[in-house]
Amino acid sequence: MAISLETKKLANFIDGKWVEGSKATAVINPASGEEIVQVPLSDASNVDDAVTAAKRAQKKWALVPAPQRAELLYRVGNLLKERKERLSQLLTMENGKVLEEARGEVQEGIDMAFYMAGEGRRLFGQTTPAELKNKFAMSQRVPVGVVGIITPWNFPIAIATWKSFPAIVAGNAVVWKPATETPIMAYELAKIFEEAGLPNGVLNVVFGTGQTVGNAMVHHQDIRVISFTGSNDVGRNIAADCGRQLKKVSLEMGGKNAVIVMDDADLDLAVEGILWSAFGTSGQRCTACSRVIVHEAVKEELENKLLAAMKDLTIGDGLDPSVKVGPIINRAGLEKIKDYIGIGKNEGAKLLEGGYELSGSGYRGGQFFAPTLFTDATADMRIAQEEIFGPVVSLIPVSSLEEAIEVNNGVSFGLSSSIFTQNVNRVFQAQRDLDTGIVYVNAGTTGAEIHLPFGGTKGTGNGHRDSGVQALDVFTEWKAVYVDYSGKLQRAQIDVD
């Protein structure tokens, strides 16, 4: 039985206080259509209040020694660990992903807390020889100030921890706009920070729409960094708006990820990797596999194995431990998937399995879509170029590794790629030539680990990375410090002997 939420109406968390909004909207369980809770629809004035509190708190927080800031993250990590099962069930209720995946997502947050807490005793700069006598030179990381983070519904706690934890340990204060579809994780994480003893104003949560709250954050002069994960269209607009303000911006957007299956691949292993990457989270991951680039010599065998394995996928409420594929987040997402099924058919791809909405007994009230497999797709088809964000995968036949790499790279995104082969030479050629930010060998396109950088190339982002030590680059500035102890004026590049 699912765990219950302690309140029926969420509140913003601003300056350490819970602030109710004047307007609200319902949060719907996508597996049942039932209302879970009401979430505020905040306005620009709530953003102003949060930024004012963050700006005031950040000045004091930056003076707290970084190892002490890290101690707070250790406490947050322990509280996440204690509440992992409760959080996982709540996550499944609001997001729909199966409980096994929800537990994995909460674990990402736990791992990120402990990893970034470790950075509190590093935050490394550099020392370097000075070019003049009796002079010392070094660089150091310093906080940016007030950070705005905007997170999506598909990973409502993991992505938030990728962004907020490095920002906080580096000495910044945070204003966070979660997705209105999945606000419960933000509410629960704010409560954990409160219990852990984070000073008031260092973390602020403002619920609301992107058009209102997100827009106010992007244009607020006292927010100096925007870290956004979401759609490519919205990310482009944020980048343009931040560019005009000379505001730092980090974007993690879409993907059109491919699994390459060569003629020497372990096909059973490849099928497992494809199923997990294509249909886990109902395909609603930026790292989801939506293309399988398969060598023509094994195409028919791979198709047959995939079709057989897909018949064993169980679909339904993610809280049911027997279910492997959960619902689509909302009606708009489901209608988009249905549109792409029509596009694929019209383009000439062959529909082998799925391609329809699930209804009737067991699916009433929810949004469910059958796992779908197209074959004989070509690299230029829209279903092979555009992000669908659903349980839809297309097989594209090729005749060589070189052609497979060309097809993989021939899209506007560059997040994740994968190759199944038992040839070590092909492995090294692929990892060199695939143009994505993440490359997997003999595994699917999902499953990033938090101590490595997460992000991609081309239309997937703008060069920054979530996770790993590289995440600190988003939330810090570099300061160069020179100490001249010669007792006289020495001019760089001029007074060199």
Report on the structure:
By secondary structure, the chain is α/β, with parallel strands linked by helices. The protein folds into 2 domains: 12-253 and 461-480, Aldehyde Dehydrogenase, Chain A, domain 1; 257-441, Aldehyde Dehydrogenase, Chain A, domain 2, CATH 3.40.309. The protein contains 14 helices and 23 strands. The protein has helices spanning 44-61, 66-82, 84-95, 99-119, 158-169, 184-196, 210-218, 232-244, 267-279, 299-310, 331-347, 401-409, 424-433, 472-475, and strands at 12-14, 17-19, 24-28, 35-40, 126-129, 135-143, 146-150, 173-177, 203-205, 225-229, 248-252, 257-261, 289-295, 350-353, 357-358, 368-369, 372-375, 392-398, 413-414, 416-420, 438-441, 457-458, 476-484. The N and C termini lie far apart (78 Å).
Largest sheet: 7 strands, mixed
Number of helices: 14
Q: Mean pLDDT across all residues, rounded?
A: 96
Spell out the CATH superfamily of the largest domain.
Aldehyde Dehydrogenase, Chain A, domain 1
CATH architecture annotation name of the largest domain: 3-Layer(aba) Sandwich
Beta-strand percentage range: 15-25%
Q: How many distinct beta strands?
A: 23
| CATH topology description of the largest domain | Aldehyde Dehydrogenase, Chain A, domain 1
N-to-C terminal Cα separation, in Å? 78 Å
Low-confidence stretches: none
- Strands of the largest sheet, in order across it? 14-17-18-13-12-20-21
* Overall number of structural domains: 2
Question: How does the helix and strand content classify structurally?
Answer: alpha/beta
State the share of residues found in helices, binned by percent: 25-40%
* Computed CA radius of gyration, to the nearest angstrom: 24 Å
Shape: globular
Question: Can you identify the CATH class of the largest domain?
Answer: Alpha Beta
